[in-house]
Amino acid sequence: MATKKNNKYDSGVNIMGSVPNYNMMLDYISDTYGITEGSSGAFEFRTEKSLQRFVSAIESCILRFKNAEHKKMFFEAIANKDFSVQGRLMVLFWQLTYSNLLFSRITAEVFMKAVYAGRVTITAEEVTSFLRYIKESEPGELDWSEDTIKISGSKYLTIMKKLGLADGAIKKTIIHPVITTGLFVYFIRFVQTITDDRTLHNPYMIFSFSEEQTIISRLKKIDNIQYWDIAQIGNEITIDLK
């Protein structure tokens, strides 16, 4: 589906939801665009046209970077053998919150709100309702048919399932990821690199899957002090990467 050049949102969520294996996709990205060398043959589709469709989606939905440091961090992380498969998928999740605006908005305003409300499930109808809200409240955006909106709602939750953050069929169970020390350090560097906000009010902090006090405790851990300096005045905390 074609979109206007000046539209904020695209239908990349639909294509990304159809990528069969995200772990293989990360290998393909690392081998083709990144710092590893290997065969990209595992990332196969039935036709060349299908492959090109997904390659275009990868380039437009994932491979967008704030600066050279952001790009370097991402490629080093997805090639990092110290990260588990789920760890690499978390890196991809955080990257999508930056590189695709529609994914970011759905995640912040629907999925993460459910997480912080302590809910255990989420449905595609919640996502489609949010997409209808965008369509109604932002003239010219998401000028899609109802069928496309419903597909997008379903595909979004399919993405979250493939990222290891949801499970189930129609009603998805929300899965809370294990954020290892290595992933936490990556996340803090990530949010500091893509924005100028060095505080806990950084809008990307919502994607941490952690309450503020938990973040503060982890920031102050002795093992992590080597990565940043922290200044605290009252309840305000500022993080400066070393």
Please, could you describe this protein's structure?
Helix 5 packs parallel to helix 9. This protein starts with 11 loop residues before the first helix and ends with a strand. 27% of the residues are buried. The chain has a three-stranded antiparallel beta sheet with strand order 1-3-2. Strands 4-5 form a two-stranded antiparallel sheet. It is globular. It is mainly alpha-helical and 242 residues long. Helices cover 52% and strands 9% of the residues.
Give a short overview:
With 242 residues, the chain is mainly alpha-helical. It is built from 10 helices and 5 strands; from the N terminus they run H-H-H-H-H-H-E-H-H-E-E-H-H-E-E. Helix 4 runs antiparallel to helix 9 (181-194) and helix 7 (124-137) crosses helix 8.
Strand order of the largest sheet: 1-3-2
Count of helix runs: 10
Major sheet: 3 strands, antiparallel
Shape: globular
Mean pLDDT: 91
Instruction: Bin the strand percentage.
Output: 5-15%
Q: What class would the helix/strand composition place it in?
A: mainly alpha
User: Regions with pLDDT < 50 over 5+ consecutive residues?
Assistant: none
- What separation lies between the terminal Cα atoms? 45 Å
Order of helices and strands: HHHHHHEHHEEHHEE
Tell me the number of strands: 5
Gyration radius, rounded: 18 Å
The proportion of residues forming helix, as a percent range, comes to 40-55%
Features of the shown structure:
mainly alpha, 242 residues, 52% helix, globular
Helix/strand layout:
Elements: H1 12-16, H2 22-32, H3 48-61, H4 68-78, H5 85-99, H6 101-116, E1 121-123, H7 124-137, H8 146-162, E2 166-167, E3 171-174, H9 181-194, H10 212-219, E4 228-233, E5 236-241
Antiparallel strand pairs: 1-3, 2-3, 4-5
Helix pairs in contact: 4-9, 5-6, 5-9, 6-7, 7-8
